[in-house]
Design brief:
The chain has about 260 residues and is an alpha/beta fold. It has helices at about 5-15, 20-30, 50-55, 70-75, 115-125, 140, 145-150, 155-170, 175-185, 200-210, 215-225, 235-240; strands at about 40-45, 60-65, 80-85, 100-105, 125-135, 190-195, 255-265. It has one domain: Rossmann fold, CATH 3.40.50.150. Strands 3-2-1-4-5-7-6 form a 7-stranded mixed beta sheet, sandwiched between helices. The longest helix is centred in the first third of the chain and has 14 residues, at about 20-30. The protein is globular.
Length: about 260
């Protein structure tokens, strides 16, 4: 991708989301631009529809989410041909119906993940593609707060900080790629490719974005928009912090992992 394309990807997210969330979504968007998704496409965990609305040129066929309010917001974006309110462990579609299943930073929030992966396999055509991304085992270990507390010798407090951050992020899983590969194989997938992304420096920017993002939360509550003034001057600082990570987002020390799997024949 050239510089202008990367700039456009980051701006689409940064101008409409709290910077820390938009930053991570932009990196994931960048990966999706280089992946072919055979139709029909099923989005597992469609949420408010923001990611699909800016990352994909065409409407996705189906989005599924268990929460009413985000689904209504997604409906207003007109991003999916069909939205379904439901659980990932009970997807109301026949076997081998979809060509692709996507799930963007969703599976880590689902405690009982095995039935969801099995359902994703069931609804995919043989050889169908399953594309998803999740935080990995490094995420809680490389948090800035944990590292600082560890340096001070406060080991128990450091571990408690990681648990606290995972709790506010609603992470039920922060597992290594090898754990996810085993789950995929049990569910009926072959792993085609995986890579780690979002290095520790990027995680620190995201971590500090939680308290710094409070004005965005207030704007959302009062005006229905995360970013009240989506102008370059208003977002110059977060742009400066985050833009460099889109040039080469893969990292051997990345705290997130991206997966491409196929339904076994």
């Amino acid at each position: 991708m050239d510089k202008q394309q990367l700039d456009d990807i980051l701006w689409r997210h940064l101008s409409s989301l709290p910077y820390f969330r938009g930053f991570l979504r932009a990196v994931e968007d960048r990966f999706y631009q280089e992946i072919d998704l055979p139709e029909p496409v099923f989005d597992l965990g469609s949420g408010d529809g923001h990611f699909a609305s800016v990352a994909f040129r065409d409407k996705l066929d189906v989005g599924l989410d268990p929460w009413v309010e985000p689904t209504l917001e997604a409906q207003g974006r007109n991003t999916y041909r069909l939205l379904v309110l439901g659980e990932g462990a009970h997807i109301p579609f026949p076997n081998a119906y979809f060509g692709s299943v996507t799930s963007t930073s969703v599976l880590e929030h689902i405690p009982d993940i095995e039935p969801v992966l099995s359902e994703a396999a069931r609804i995919l055509k043989l050889g169908g593609k399953f594309v998803f991304c999740v935080p990995n085992h490094r995420f809680p270990e490389l948090l800035w707060g944990r590292k600082m507390l560890s340096k001070l010798g406060l080991k128990r407090l450091a571990s408690a900080y990681s648990r606290f951050f995972n709790r506010i992020a609603r992470h039920a899983h922060t597992d290594s790629p090898s754990v996810w590969q085993s789950r995929l194989e049990r569910a009926g997938f072959d792993l085609v490719d995986t890579w780690d992304y979002f290095p520790p420096e990027a995680l620190t920017i995201l971590e500090w974005g939680h308290p710094l993002g409070l004005p965005s939360l207030l704007s959302k509550k009062l005006f229905g928009r995360w970013v009240l003034f989506p102008k370059r001057w208003n977002l110059a600082i977060p742009w400066h912090w985050t833009r460099k990570f889109l040039d080469d987002p893969r990292s051997e020390q990345g705290v997130c992992s991206f997966f491409i799997a196929r339904r076994k024949p």
